[in-house]
Amino acid sequence: MNDFLQLVASRQSDRAYDMSRAVEPEKLERILEAARLSPSACNAQPWRFVVITDPELSVKVGKATAGLGMNKFAKDAPVHILIVEESMNITSFLGAKIKDKYFPLIDIGIATAHITLAAESEGLGSCILGWFDEKEIKKLTGIPANKRLLLDITIGYPAKDKRKKSRKSKDKVVSYNHY
């Protein structure tokens, strides 16, 4: 298996982090650079990455993701990368209207994949969270009320071993030349 497939195979959603290990700034910078360089429709780059590294704020943001038994672990994540949707450029906007596809969500999904794979390549764990109190996190971080906070990606050193990946079989998700 090539290096990239090994990286993809080893990446998992980590829900426990080693509280004694901080994420090195240089690793975080490389992860953010991978996100910044990710492709987007018409090069719109419709995102802003709000990086939470302050320990007290990280706990507060993590607590704002918990609820109904969800994301209890997030308060222990040393880093949160919040992904805020920004405006698309005119070309992406027109393409989205003509083709009835909302490209910013696709673009942010691609950037998210880049972040999680870059974290894995740095020996870090990550988990993509979509369940959180958006108003509370905006209040904590100064994200304008009129912006959409779409995702919170937790980053840290995993505290647990890798799990076996469970995926649908190839024949259930891949076909050639027809559906």
From TrEMBL:
Official protein name in the record: NAD(P)H nitroreductase
One of the Pfam families matching this protein, by short name: Nitroreductase
InterPro entries linked to this entry: Nitroreductase, Nitroreductase-like
SUPFAM superfamilies, alphabetized: FMN-dependent nitroreductase-like
Single GO term (MF): oxidoreductase activity
The keyword Protein biosynthesis appears for this protein: no
Lineage top rank: taxon: Bacteria
Protein family (similarity comment): Belongs to the nitroreductase family.
PANTHER family linked: NAD(P)H NITROREDUCTASE YDGI-RELATED (PTHR43673), NADH DEHYDROGENASE_NAD(P)H NITROREDUCTASE XCC3605-RELATED (PTHR43673:SF10)
Domain Nitroreductase: 8-66, 70-157
Record keywords: Oxidoreductase
